[in-house]
Amino acid sequence: MGAMTVREKYDIDRHDERLKTLRLLTKLLAFFYFSYTLVDIYLLPDITLRSLLLRGCVMLPLTFFLFAYYNRPVSIRRKELAAVLVITLSAVVWCAILLGSENERVLSYFYAGLVFLMVLTIVLTPPFEQSLYSSLFVFACLYSSIWFLSGSTSFYVINHLSLGVPVLVLTLMANYRFSAESLRLYLENVSVEQLREELAARNAELERISHIDPLTGLTNRRGLARYADDLQQHPNAQHCIAAILIDVDHFKAFNDFYGHSEGDNCLRDVANAIRDACRPDDVVCRFGGEEFLILRSDNSSHTRHALALAEEIRVKVMELAIPHQPTQEMRVTISVGVCVAALGTDTELSPLIKAADTALYEAKREGRNRVRVNNQPDNDAHHLSTLSVSNINTAL
Ligand SMILES: Nc1nc2c(ncn2[C@@H]2O[C@H](COP(=O)(O)OP(=O)(O)OP(=O)(O)O)[C@@H](O)[C@H]2O)c(=O)[nH]1
């Protein structure tokens, strides 16, 4: 399908609204047109038969045809054009009826013909081109017929034109302004809508970016805060939560030895290894400079599962074999602290993370490159229980 013009889009978008107006106006105009049969008969009794025949046999079937055409799946422009054609024809028929009268009253009645001009311009307000051609045609038809009316004189024609010409010009101008204004309003609405959509998309992107660490692509502290809020707002007492805090060992020495840019690469590699080991629903966050935090909440987050994940990540980082000359292992290693707790209605993350941090501190103190657990989120140092790496296998 080729590119759609603004006008075509306007016609499609406004189809239903314009068709509703078109139906209503057609009913109203048909009512006036056919009820004027009585006016014909009252003012000009000599054209009774002519009026009944032409209105009843020509215009009535055409009106039914017009309503049927409105139901067809064609563009609103075509439907408006059909209405314009029928109204134009009704003006011709009206002239033909009045031309059959010998009564002089026809001259004062003929002024009613200007109503057709108003209908084709400001009442129906069809697209300007349709309005222009149809009203010019009706104008020509009226002022051709006027000479053949019974008792018509040039004085009468000029008198009539003094009203007919301004009606034609001014109502056409009104139609033009209305058409242009409707299109302008539509375009304004379209661009406002487009701007709103663009703004919403940009806001969504900003919101997403603001929760992501640019170096590693992991969730940042802001994202973590949102997760903490969600957790407080949707607590589920059945669930457990595991906090796994990871710190790269001797990272200052790494930076000093290999440079900051290599340090960044190392952090990216470690972050990828952590993400690969995690599930899509885990929260994996860059917690600080060379610190990472994993939060996993589900029904089966037992200590042994959390320890297994922590150990898997520790081994994965070892297997990356990122050189780290200044250390005993000669490669980059991590220390990990774990805390698992039941997720109650008033669960807060900070005591949990603090407990994991205490376990991490233990891992560092005991020589690094190991996993430790502390399941006391109240951070009571007396109840600190730590497991050594060898205990993990027992726990599993
Ligand atoms: N390259 C790089 N370095 C960072 C970044 N953020 C923090 N760091 C560095 O990470 C290092 C952390 O050093 P420390 O807190 O002393 O810890 P450490 O040297 O890893 O020692 P331990 O944690 O005790 O094993 C500092 O030198 C920071 O400059 C970062 O985004 N990129």
How does this structure look, described?
The protein is 64% helix and 8% strand. With 396 residues, the chain is an alpha+beta fold. It folds into two domains: 188 residues, no CATH class; 175 residues, Alpha-Beta Plaits (2-Layer Sandwich), CATH 3.30.70.270. Helix 6 packs antiparallel against helix 7, helix 6 packs parallel to helix 8 and helix 7 packs antiparallel against helix 8. It is rod-shaped. The two termini are 62 Å apart. The C terminus is likely disordered.
Regarding quaternary structure, how should these chains be classified? single chain
* Shape designation: rod-shaped
Order of helices and strands: HHHHHHHHHEHHEEHEHEH
Q: What fraction of residues sit in β-strands?
A: 5-15%
Helix amount: 55-70%
How many structural domains are formed by the residues?
2
Number of helices: 14
Q: Please tell me the overall pLDDT.
A: 89
Spatial sequence of strands, sheet with the most strands? 2-3-1-4-5
Bound molecules: guanosine-5'-triphosphate
C-alpha Rg (nearest Å) = 42 Å
- End-to-end Cα distance: 62 Å
Low-pLDDT segments: 379-396
What structural class do the secondary elements suggest?
A: alpha+beta
Strand elements, count: 5
The largest sheet, given as strand count, sense and whether it forms a barrel, is: 5 strands, mixed
Catalytic activity: 2 GTP = 3',3'-c-di-GMP + 2 diphosphate
EC number: 2.7.7.65
Protein name: diguanylate cyclase
InterPro entries: Diguanylate_Cyclase, GGDEF_dom, Nucleotide_cyclase, Rev_trsase/Diguanyl_cyclase
